[in-house]
Amino acid sequence: MTLTWATATSLTDLGELTARWLTGDLDETPTYGGPPDEETATLVPVLAALNRAGFVTDFSQPGQELDQGWRQRAAISGFVDDPTCRRLTAALAATDLVLLHEYSDSGVRIPVTLDHGAAHTWVGGVSGFEDWEGEVGKTALYALDNAWYVTVVDPVWGRAEHLWHVLTNALNLPHPAKVSR
Helix or strand or coil: residue 118? Predict the structure, then answer.
């Protein structure tokens, strides 16, 4: 049977499908219509590897200094199981990266994009697994509902590579190619 969003039954399946979307094999995800944003192109190899390692991502952005007053912190959010959450927690504890992991929405948000000094994009809290309803099977929805929602933010504006290297180390993945622009 061909793996599709509707036939997915686990975080592993959802991670594989998200990796296939990132690499251009699928046109969209249940929560994102169309291909990944252009800024994600430099992150595709590491994001695909993270998804295949159990971190089902639903948001990411590179750290970069952009023209015309825009700045970004590297950030990523998504769903992980208990063992992956423990690995990330242990690996990130001694770093300067900010890690939020929650089952229910605490309301904590961190700005990750600035437009001329004003917060423009925020991350944190819990993404609604309900956004996946009607797109994935009941077993996959159950897996999302019982997963930790994890957000990792590099507190340094514009730093391109640090977050991705720490995450790949935490999940024992090969180091990504240079991700800076």
Answer: strand
